[in-house]
Design goal:
heterodimer; A: mainly beta; globular
């Protein structure tokens, strides 16, 4: 069964606007970590942000924040003040404490327009 | 720090040929991973290694073997390449705190 679901294959946002990329996850493990990665057209995987299941506060890293709703099992990435350089694929991932694997969703392609 | 280094960056193989993808990390991480990325499929785990001397199968291990030579190095071997193994391969290592995984630059492999 798919552990990470990203339902938006593609998204558009205008420069300077905020955008939310959706991610839902499935686990019965009470301890887990959630990750977001950015993959620009050059191909490398860039770590953006991490949220632990026991963290009380939503994670933030600069213009990136993670909207963590534990009861809904969702971990949406919010990018504020979008920039042209934010155009990329974005992947949500989860690691359960009971396992070693980092499981990825299929990604969302974000295009930032002028 | 170099982080995670993968070689080669590009490779073309003929069906039936063998090759080894090399991966090394200089961050003293215990856990290392091999993923493949195909269009529309995200990243799928091939094998992982929780520590030196241990390896385990991931989601798509068929056609691959791995070797955790030491704490730094984790190699992926294709014994008899098939066109279905055309993909981009990523090696990664994870921090002990589990809060971040670092990726190599990727290897674009084409099997003809």
């Amino acid at each position: 069964a798919q552990k990470i679901t990203q339902t938006q294959p593609g998204m558009f946002v205008q420069e300077k606007e905020a955008v939310t990329l959706d991610c839902t996850y499935d686990t019965s493990d009470p301890s887990y970590g959630l990750f977001w990665y950015k993959q620009p057209s050059s191909g490398e995987m860039i770590f953006l942000i991490y949220q632990g299941s026991y963290d009380q506060q939503n994670a933030t890293e600069g213009r990136y924040s993670l909207n963590f709703q534990k009861a809904r099992k969702s971990a949406n990435l919010v990018i504020s003040a979008s920039q042209l350089g934010d155009s990329a694929m974005y992947f949500c991932a989860m690691r359960e404490a009971s396992g070693y694997a980092l499981n990825f969703g299929k990604g969302t392609s974000l295009l930032v327009t002028p | 720090n170099a982080g995670v280094t993968q070689t080669p960056k590009f490779q073309v193989l003929k069906t039936g040929q063998s090759m080894t993808l090399q991966c090394a990390q200089d961050m003293n991480h215990n856990s290392m991973y091999w993923y493949r990325q195909d269009p529309g499929m995200g990243l799928r785990l091939i094998y992982y290694s929780a520590s030196e001397g241990t390896t385990d199968k991931g989601e798509v291990p068929n056609g691959y073997n791995v070797s955790r030579l030491n704490k730094r190095e984790f190699s992926l071997r294709l014994e008899s390449a098939a066109p279905s193994q055309t993909s981009v391969y990523f090696c990664a290592s994870r921090t002990p705190e589990n809060t971040e995984a670092f990726f190599g630059q990727g290897t674009r492999l084409t099997v003809v």
